[in-house]
Write a structure and sequence with these properties.
About 30% of the residues lie in helices and about 35% in strands. Strand 7 and strand 8 form a beta hairpin. It is globular and about 75 Å long.
Length: about 180
């Protein structure tokens, strides 16, 4: 009887060791990139300045899920940057300015007959220079990670999170969910 319990304990300990090893290795692979710090863009200032007319390479993508209306987001980046969308379907819109992104957002909402929310813009800097921007709707989180780049271009990986609740409760930001 005691021998059976020891073998079960050893098997359980072995399973825990294997699981922890897999977890640690997964963490090592995920840590290959550095999360980029962002600053929110003051849109009134940016649109009044030359920054509002600067052209960026632009990708547009949508959330996926059980909702009739999806959230819309954009990744804008310079010519010296490559962006890995990490298995997220996207549309390459070519070069667009911040003003054109706002117009595209309005046109996309109108075309799909969605209500949508205003875009929030964040800028990402490297060495004091803005190298990328994101624009996303409310309850959507877009993060950029700097990856090890091969060659002269900066490699960035985009990861997004849909913060809406799939249970109909309104999501994390709903005051009633606390």
């Amino acid at each position: 009887m005691v021998k059976i319990k020891r073998e079960r304990n050893r098997m359980a300990a072995g399973a825990v060791v294997v699981a922890l090893t897999a977890f640690v290795l997964t963490g090592c692979f995920a840590a290959a990139g550095n999360h980029m710090n962002w600053q929110q863009v003051d849109m009134a200032r940016a649109l009044a300045d030359d920054a509002g007319s600067r052209k960026w390479n632009t990708y547009r993508f949508l959330t996926e899920g059980p909702f009739a209306e999806q959230r819309i987001a954009y990744v804008l980046f310079g010519d010296d940057v490559t962006v890995d969308m990490w298995h997220t379907p996207f549309v390459n819109l070519g070069k667009m300015s911040l003003r054109e992104v706002l117009d595209n957002h309005d046109a996309t909402l109108k075309e799909r007959m969605w209500i949508g929310t205003p875009l929030t813009f964040h800028e990402y800097q490297r060495g004091g220079k803005v190298i990328a921007c994101t624009a996303n709707e409310f309850q959507m989180e877009v993060d950029l990670w700097e990856m090890a780049a091969a060659g002269p271009k900066v490699g960035i990986r985009m990861i997004y999170t849909d913060r809406r609740s799939f249970s109909g409760g309104g999501g994390v930001l709903d005051p009633d969910s606390r």
